[in-house]
Automatic annotation (TrEMBL):
Gene Ontology MF annotations: 2-oxoglutarate-dependent dioxygenase activity
Transmembrane segments: none
PANTHER family: ARGININE DEMETHYLASE AND LYSYL-HYDROXYLASE JMJD, CUPIN-LIKE DOMAIN-CONTAINING PROTEIN
Protein name per its UniProtKB record: Uncharacterized conserved protein
Every JmjC domain range: 183-333
Annotated source species: Hahella chejuensis (strain KCTC 2396)
SMART domains for this protein: JmjC
Domain of life: Bacteria
Length: 369
């Protein structure tokens, strides 16, 4: 993209941020009635429980119409098509390229923890065995994003990251591995509000999108139930290792958080007012190497690492969905993260364990037929 295009898009970002700050974060929202734990458990027990649909060879138009605009999660099985990262990225690769760097780890709630040598950290988690979903450990924190300064972050966001001098692992990696990945083939080329791309096409490997990060996590690591900070769409690009977890419809936001934390949170507004208009629904996902999952805007989700994992993620909102996104965000406010994982809640364990048994029985019946 040209220098003029970068400047225009940067100005668009500034205008949008200013507008949202004035229109949303400083406006008082109506108080919603609280939902009790027993009612929350009943809501989740009665929810429609299904697996995230898996597709491949999907066009941008179909992806947008069937999933993005309906706020429906989906896994694109060939999502990393033509990404050299599939062949190049490994724990050894990052040890050789960046191993001497000092990095700051984060816990399951995104809070900064100790600084460690990257090489030592990667070798430690790469040696650990695979675990089953629900086997959680707090022994190892994960590496998601290493910060430098707010000004440098803005330069990366606006497409001027190649001019920045930094010792931040995230920023250095973004500069050096640009040729290893790019915009997934099924995402729209242009027409984005977040990040602002009304001129030219989105090149997420050259312009750092919101919440961009490389994730390195150990088996047993859990990113607790949460809604992303700006309630934007997220793409979780799985390069090495396996992940699994759950996504909840926005109508279950209060119930899921109540059950995870063991204290009352607000009722969610009616499903008709939510993006996609979904009734109570829980999606289970299993993410394999080479796949990309869309986590739609505003949906609570919890992610578990099953084997030593390297993934890449970033967030966005397209122009056609912006009005619904803005109204929903105005009603709900910013994102949040639960103080405890929902996988540890006994009432929720009974939900997914029961569904797992019924699902296996159904598969057995199909095979007998």
């Amino acid at each position: 993209m040209s220098f003029i295009g970068d400047v225009c898009n940067a100005l668009g970002d500034v205008a949008l941020w200013t507008y949202e700050e004035a229109s949303i974060y400083r406006r008082k929202r109506e108080t919603q009635p609280l939902i009790e734990e027993s009612e929350a458990a009943s809501r989740l027990q009665g929810a429609d429980y299904r697996h995230v649909e898996r597709v491949s060879d999907i066009t941008s138009a179909t992806f947008s119409e069937r999933y993005l605009m309906r706020n429906e999660p989906v896994i694109v099985a060939d999502g990393l098509l033509d990404w050299p990262a599939q062949q190049l990225w490994s724990f050894n690769y990052f040890c050789e390229e960046f191993g001497d760097l000092s990095v700051r780890l984060q816990d399951a709630g995104f809070k900064p923890k100790d600084s460690v040598e990257l090489r030592a950290y990667l070798k430690q988690i790469a040696s650990l065995p695979e675990v089953e979903l629900g086997c959680m450990s707090n022994e190892l924190d994960y590496l998601r994003y290493t910060y430098d300064s707010f000004f440098k972050h803005l330069l990366f966001t606006w497409g001027f990251g190649h001019r920045v001098k930094t010792q931040s692992f995230s920023f250095l990696a973004f500069q050096r591995i640009q040729r290893h990945w790019g915009r997934p083939y099924f995402l729209p080329r242009s027409g984005y509000r977040i990040p602002w791309v009304q001129m030219g096409s989105l090149e997420p490997n050259k312009r750092m999108c919101q919440d961009w990060g490389l994730y390195f996590s150990a088996p047993g690591a859990c990113t607790r139930l949460h809604v992303d900070g700006m309630r934007t769409n997220a793409v979780l690009c799985q390069v090495v290792g396996k992940k699994a977890g759950w996504i909840f419809s926005s109508s279950l936001e209060g119930a899921a958080r109540t059950l995870a934390e063991g204290r009352s949170f607000a009722h969610s507004p009616a499903a008709a007012n939510d993006p996609g208009g979904q009734a109570d629904r829980i999606w289970r996902f299993d993410l394999e190497p080479g796949e990309i999952m869309l986590i739609p805007k505003g949906l609570p989700h919890e992610v578990h690492t099953l084997s030593p994992s390297i993934s890449l993620t970033y967030n966005f909102v397209t122009s056609p969905e912006y009005d619904d996104y803005f109204k929903f965000k105005s009603a709900r406010g910013p994102g949040w993260i639960a103080s405890a994982p929902i996988a540890a809640a006994l009432a929720f364990k009974s939900v997914y364990q029961k569904r797992a048994v019924s699902g296996s029985e159904a598969r057995e019946e199909v095979s007998l037929v």
